[in-house]
Structure formats: structure tokens, C-alpha cells
Amino acid sequence: LRKLILKELTLDSINYCYWYGSCNFRFNNAGATKASELLNNSFIDYSRSDPACDNFSICIDKFKHELLENRFPLLEERFRHLDEVEINGESFADAIFLYLAGKITFDFILENMLQYFPGFASDLFLKRAALFFINLYREAGIFENQIKILPVAADYQIPKILEHYGFIKYSDELKSIINKDLIMSK
Fold it and tell me: What is the pLDDT of residues 92-114, one digit of tens each?
């Protein structure tokens, strides 16, 4: 669980600003799916239960190298966020275990996340923080009740889902632009 927490914290710390639209507009397919693939490659040894595979810093360095090679946007900013995770990630994982043992509150964890990881706090809607807890729930079944009080991650994916289920309707002109994978300038 500890390794899962650190791996998810690493990925979610850089989960922003890929580019809107289809992945064919992303140089080297530099999107969330590609970032996840690169993270898995960088953490493959770390994810094993072998104690010899416990060097979190080496995984972070490998991940940075992968992001650089794949020409992800905003590398300087992403590297700064990864440095925050490298420095404070282990302590944050410890705090999650204290929470699971009933010794601290969820509010305390969230406040510490925002204090020790300014990259998570820089998002007005706390999208990356919410995604971290949502993903931990999905992967490990923890934070089920807490994700219900987190804000909904607001981004371009939400209208896509709402339109798919018929809750909103795009104008014919907008639908045509979307279907043709055209980049909108305004």
C-alpha cells in the first residue's frame, strides 16, 4: 500500500495541462495515459515486494527522464512538483497510515497535502488532490467516504461525459468541430 500511495502521489502531482482535444494533437502522445505508462515503466522495480527495490528517489529520477525524453509540456513546473513528492512523499504516506489507524483526521491529511505539496495546492479546484484520493479509493478501497466530500474535478472531460449521456447538447457547429478533431482558437 505504501508503494501504491507514493506511486499515485507521483503521477497525480503532474496530472495537468496536457492539451485539450484528441491525443493526435499531443506531440509524442504526451497525455495522461502516456504519463501513466511512463510512470509504470519507471516504477516497475519499485512496485515489486522485493526490499532491494525500495529506492523511491531513483524511480522519480527515471520518471523525470522519461517525461523529458517524451517531450512533455511544462517540464520545469512538473519537475518542481516531482521534487516536492520526492522530499515529502514518504512522510505523507506515513500520515495516511496514521489516518488509517484512526490517529489523525482526513482534514489533517488534506491540509498537509496542500502545505507540503504546493503543486497540489496551486490548483484552485484541488483537482489533483481529489484525483489522488479518488485513485487510491479505486486501487485500494481506502477513502471511500472522504471522496464524497471532495470537489468534483472540473475540466474539459466533464462536458464530454455530460454530452455523451445526453445531459447537454452541443450546437451542430460545435459538434462538427469536435468530430473533425479541429483545434478551436477561441
Answer: 999 999 999 999 999 999 999 99
Q: Which amino acid is at 76?
A: E
Cβ–Cβ < 8 Å for 60, 85:
yes
Angle at 18 between CA 14 and CA 87, to 5 degrees: 10
Query: Which H or E run contains 123?
Result: none
Q: Is 169 exposed, middle or buried (0-12, 13-18, 19+ CB in 10 A)?
A: exposed
- The pLDDT tens digits of the residues spanning 113-132 come to 999 999 888 877 788 898 89
Q: Above 70 in pLDDT, residue 51?
A: no
- The three grid cell numbers given for residue 181, joined into one nine-digit string: 478533431
What length is written for the chain?
Answer: 186
